[in-house]
Amino acid sequence: MSAAVSLARWQFAITTVYHFFFVPLTLGLSIFVALLESKYVSSGDETYKKMTKFWGTLFLINFAMGVVTGLVQEFQFGLNWSGYSRFMGDIFGAPLAIEALLAFYIESTFLGVWIFGWDKLPKKLHAAMIWLVAVGSNLSALWILIANSFMQEPVGYALRNGRAEMTNFIAVATNPNVRFQWPHVFFGAMTTAGFFVLGFTAYHLLKNPRSEVFRKSFKWGAVYGLIGVIMVILVGHFQGQHLVKHQPMKMAAAEAIWDTEEPASFSLFATIDQKNQRNPLNITIPGVLSFLSYNNFSSEVEGIKDLQAAAEQKYGPGNYIPTVALTYWAFRIMVGAGFLMLLLALWAVAKGAADDKLLLKILVWAIFLPYIANSTGWIMAEIGRQPWIVYGLQKVADAVSPNVPAWNVAFSLIVFTLLYGVLMVADVYLLLEYGKQEPSSEGSASAAMAY
After folding, report:
1. What is the secondary structure of 310-351 as a DSSP string?
2. Residue 206 CA to chain centroid, in angstroms?
3. Is residue 258 a contact partner of residue 303, using CB atoms and an 8 Å limit?
4. Angle 177-182-186 (CA atoms, 0-180°, nearest 5)?
5. Alpha-carbon distance 64 to 323, whole Å?
6. Would 69 disulfide with which of 14, 19, 342, 405, CB 3.0-4.6 Å?
């Protein structure tokens, strides 16, 4: 059973990372393209039409891969996680059904109209189509995060016959956790799109610094990315304070703080010995963790040892400590990538004419930063919740399918990993091949279908 649990966790984790590689760009780029087309409609400037079609085609290529990777995740609930499905189906199924029947329907339907409606629909109506796509995409993310937020912070339920049953749909839909989680994902998507645009734009400007399409794209991408990264840092700060109260073990693990401290120091760098529950090397800044947690420099922050004792008293004997080193470093990589993007976005906005070759060369590679931040952020969010799959209600070990042999999970794990690896390579290849081309007057539908 332990082998089956580990393999099922690996399979879902790998599938999720593959899926979330594409989702933020879809969310952020849909709004970016909608803004560009709105500017074209209001100004009549044909440059913005070229920009809309160029970035719109890249959006379409990425969108297709996001749909493919997302479908398999839902099958895993029934195949590998039947215990979870039985326990959570009444609650988890509702937001997923709304996402599929409402948000995804809006998104996919109007995307088709937008693709094939160029020069057939009135300009304003055509622009409205891409705005509906953007709204549908982000509503889709909202409902999925509502489902995930219940796993992080269960509300609006009752336990009956060994199952969690929904008693208050409004409470589930307005979960306090989703008030922080969805804006964090939304602005993270803006950041991803902004740096995606800057990366491809920088490549073109290094070859042709006078390109009007990419000089304007640079300015738009820089401002868009800067707004996204500033907001994701601010929302992330408040989200961390929320988690200190509602998932204190996750935040204690993210800081590798073993003993309760008052005031609490912020760890800059630590080597972690989880077996002996200590940090042999720990470089800290006094009082900063208290400030980050409670907006003052003197508050107490509970340590892992005390939280483990409290969990045993509440839930019974067991190990309630997640993998501390992984949570700690995932958090730091996410935050480090975020602040590096902030500096680069500020630099890009300051150099709005895009004449700094050093900046352009850095931005070509900085396209990877939001993907690193997105992936490590989800790793921290999910690993830090262990051993719970539904916080405080169901453990991961109780959620796995009991009658699925480990070799079966291992086989599908290998197949999915290799298949998605091939698909990701194909997607990146298509994005690079089209992204390196000069913008054309052809519609996004023609270009996308050519690929």
Report:
1. HHHHHH-SS-----HHHHHHHHHHHHHHHHHHHHHHHHHHHT
2. 30
3. yes
4. 160
5. 34
6. 19
**Residue 440 dihedral angles phi and psi, to the nearest 5°:** -120, 170
Nearest-angstrom CA–CA distance, 139 and 122: 26
In sequence order, the β-bridge partners of residue 394 are: 390
* Block residue for tokens 């082998």: 3
How far is it, in rounded angstroms, from Cα 253 to Cα 239?
16
Q: List the beta bridge partners of residue 395.
A: 388
Quick: pLDDT tens for 163-212: 888 899 999 889 998 999 999 999 999 999 999 999 999 988 888 888 88
Phi, psi of 158 (to 5 degrees): -140, 145
- Phi, psi for 299 (deg, rounded to 5): -70, 155
> How many secondary structure helices (H) and strands (E) does the chain include?
17, 6
Tell me the per-residue pLDDT of 410-446, one tens digit each, with 9 for 90 and over: 887 888 788 878 878 887 888 888 877 777 655 544 4
| Alpha-carbon span 311 to 306, nearest angstrom | 9
